[in-house]
Design goal:
735 residues; alpha+beta; 28 helices; 48% helix; Dipeptidyl-peptase3; acetylation; cytoplasm; protease; Peptidase_M49
Length: 735
């Protein structure tokens, strides 16, 4: 059996997203709008398979064919007849549910590969004796031959997502290195092209010179007679002695499906903002234009307080090893009015609260652009995982001048903070009841502050293509040096492109720190309904949760490569290090022995020192983070951040040893079952599924009733067309 780090356990938690009441309250027109947006999101989410690993599309196609021919109960009878035990068949169901949930065979949270927890030869017997095999023998056998070895392989390079020798990724061809990624980013910056909707493919010509293809995601491939802002970029370039070619057409048949449903959704839009937003998204996915997506995002920002909220595109760059390319995601959700009212009060207080952040006014945006901040119940979230909150769009130029929206996903939070006392690790006994009671409310406060005032704060100093500064270089002083500003963002540079590999984690750390810092404000706690002793308990549990999360984060550190695999968890470890460094017994992490005789640990937070010791330490750290971000000081920012993110076995904490303890006692993240919508006549029905691995599989088996086989063929054709770029990985998987 595989190392437990690379399997999903049979008893993994599975929860269903509850949105029945919110959906019931929608009008027929709103339901139709939500339905078509959901269809667009689910189709687009299939692109994530092509953004994850070479074998992921084949695994998805194989599983989908198996469960279309026989549902989980029917396949179970066959599997047991083939000699599988109940435990082995459950392990296969959990694996399949994991692939669907993560849109691939790597965890969305941690980027670690997971493999089936049963013998390969037993799974092969199930597949080759299945009803799907009888119906489509050539296709099923071909899929198994293509992905079977890679499905189980734990060759060192295949254990994690990464670039070059560090791991596998399909954002880049298999022979690309971090140096290639940096060169490509410089090229993109020189042409004012965004990396968000691109992949990079490298080949070597007859003379041994590298040739790079930058491929944009779009429906259109060959240049067309219609001129757009993209067509002029579709050509060959010489850049720093290297050959680059910009093409388009990545994921074309998938994006065609997305656009068909965005066009249908337009007929049910509530206002002109939504209509224009959708029109620009259609243009973006048709042409491969990020500028069109930005225009759509402007209309989206202007669409204040919609009943049905959504966003779709190549959004988050967490899983690109270089930190610039966006994973496709799309969500559709409905407003939760009670919690949204609290967030509206927080927004109303935002300008005052921003003044409390520990950096000079010049380092804050010239004008706080009052955003929408709503609590939503998710109907659909397509991609590799579901976050608890979102602050988007991610385009720096829009965020600085047009604003943004904050979204807290209420029914996702409800699943996330449902905590069983007996499963709580690394806490002292006297903290467990308090933690269980207040984790949910404290998380609401932290998510609100993190999204609105964390991601929503801070200014980037920039000089545009005409040489105009957005700050006064003569009068603005760096509070860390006492001198004038020495660095800033040049035209074409963005936060992601400059800070690249640390950008996502650094920004998450800044937002988390803002949340911890501002939750000490009585006004904030009063907005959420907490005063007196309750308010103090919320503060304590919020800080305690962050300290514990910093310890749990060690699961996502890879000692062999000395790198982190998850931006949010790296951020929380950094905060733990900052609070430990504050000293005076504020935070301690003590190795112990558990009641089972195995290594354990306990975190302790002195609640009486949070304000006197913790707050000043966080204040100093936050100011340094913001100053280096504002000034684009990559060298200083890296030194600061990577210093705190380093994991060693130095006493007193001995983090590498503690990592073994964390792995020993880790609990897998829950899988989330989402509903489907189905159009019956002119009415939209909500289809819900049980909270189990089998229920999750059924939800996907019924997700594409009209064109499932066609989609699987499209996915495998797209994967096969590019398979040559990862030939060595396929061979190592079969070694």
């Amino acid at each position: 059996m595989a190392n437990t780090q690379y399997i999903l356990p049979n008893d993994i938690g599975v929860s269903s997203l509850d949105c029945r009441e919110a959906f019931r309250l929608l009008s027929p027109t709103e339901r139709l709008y939500a339905h078509h947006l959901s269809r667009a999101a689910w189709y687009g989410g299939l692109a994530v398979l092509l953004q994850t690993s070479p074998e992921a599309p084949y695994i998805y196609a194989l599983l989908s064919r198996l469960f279309r021919a026989q549902d989980p109960d029917q396949l179970r009878q066959h599997a047991l007849a083939e000699g599988l035990t109940e435990e082995e068949y459950q392990a296969f169901l959990v694996y399949a549910a994991g692939v669907y949930s993560n849109m691939g065979n790597y965890k969305s949270f941690g980027d670690t590969k997971f493999v089936p927890n049963l013998p390969k030869e037993k799974l092969e017997r199930v597949i080759l004796g299945s009803e799907a095999m009888q119906q489509h023998p050539e296709e099923v056998r071909g899929l198994w031959q293509t992905c079977g070895e890679l499905m189980f392989s734990l060759e060192p390079r295949l254990r994690h997502l990464g670039l070059g020798k560090e791991g596998i990724t399909t954002y880049f061809s298999g022979d690309c290195t971090m140096e290639d990624a940096k060169l490509a980013q410089d090229f993109l910056d020189s042409q004012n092209l965004s990396a968000y909707n691109t992949r990079l493919f490298k080949e070597v010509d007859q003379e041994g010179k590298p040739c790079y293809e930058v491929r944009l995601a779009s429906i259109l491939s060959a240049d067309t007679a219609a001129v757009s802002e993209v067509t002029s970029k579709l050509k060959s370039y010489e850049f720093q002695g290297n050959h680059f070619r910009v093409t388009r057409g990545d994921y074309a048949p998938i994006l065609q499906k997305v656009v068909e449903h965005l066009e249908k959704a337009k007929a049910y839009a509530a206002n002109s903002h939504q209509e224009q937003m959708l029109a620009q998204y259609v243009e973006s996915f048709t042409q491969g234009s990020i500028e069109a997506h930005k225009r759509g995002s402007r209309f989206w920002i202007q669409d204040k307080g919609p009943i049905v909220e959504s966003y779709i595109g190549f959004i988050e760059s967490y899983r690109d090893p270089f930190g610039s390319r966006g994973e496709f995601e799309g969500f559709v959700a409905m407003v939760n009015k009670a919690m949204s009212a609290k967030f509206e009060r927080l927004v109303a207080s935002a300008e005052q609260l921003l003044k409390e952040l520990p950096w000079p006014p010049a380092f804050e945006k010239d004008k706080f652009l009052t955003p929408d901040f709503t609590s939503l119940d998710v109907l659909t979230f397509a991609g590799s995982g579901i976050p608890a909150g979102i602050n988007i769009p991610n385009y720096d130029d829009l965020r600085q001048t047009e604003g943004f929206k904050n979204v807290s996903l209420g029914n996702v939070l409800a699943v996330a903070y449902a905590t069983q006392r007996e499963k709580l690790t690394f806490l002292e006994e006297e903290d467990k009841d308090l933690y269980t009671r207040w984790k949910g409310p404290s998380f609401d406060v932290q998510v609100g502050l993190h999204e609105l005032l964390g991601h929503g704060s801070g200014k980037l100093f920039a000089q545009d293509e005409k040489g105009v500064f957005n700050f006064d270089p003569e009068t603005v002083i760096n509070p860390e040096t006492g001198e004038q500003i020495q660095s800033w963002y040049r035209s074409g540079e963005t936060w992601d492109s400059k800070f690249s590999t640390i950008a996502s984690s650094y920004e998450e750390c800044r937002a988390e720190s803002v949340g911890l810092y501002l939750c000490l404000n009585p006004q904030v706690l009063e907005i959420f309904g907490f005063e007196g002793a309750d308010a103090e308990d919320v503060i304590y549990v919020n800080w305690l949760n962050m300290v514990r999360a910093g310890l749990l984060a060690l699961e996502f550190y890879t000692p062999e490569a000395s790198n982190w695999r998850q931006a949010h968890m790296q951020a929380r470890f950094v905060i733990l290090r900052v609070l430990l460094e504050a000293g005076e017994g504020l935070v301690t992490v003590t190795p112990t022995t558990g009641s089972d005789g195995r290594p354990d640990a306990r975190v302790h937070l002195d609640r009486n020192k949070i304000r006197s010791v913790g707050r000043p330490a966080l204040e100093r750290f936050l100011r340094r983070l913001q100053v280096m971000k504002s000034t684009g000081d990559v060298a200083g920012g890296r030194a600061l951040y990577e210093g705190y993110a380093a994991v060693t076995d130095a006493p007193p904490e001995c983090f590498l040893t503690l990592r073994d303890t964390v792995l020993l006692r880790k609990e897998s993240r829950k899988l989330i079952v989402q509903p489907n919508t189905r159009l019956e006549g002119s009415e939209v029905q909500l289809l819900e599924y049980e909270a189990s691995a089998a229920g999750l599989i059924r939800s996907f088996s019924e997700r594409f009733p009209e064109d499932g086989p066609e989609l699987e063929e499209v996915l495998t054709q797209l994967a096969t067309a590019d398979a040559r770029f990862w030939k060595s990985e396929a061979q190592s998987g079969q070694a």
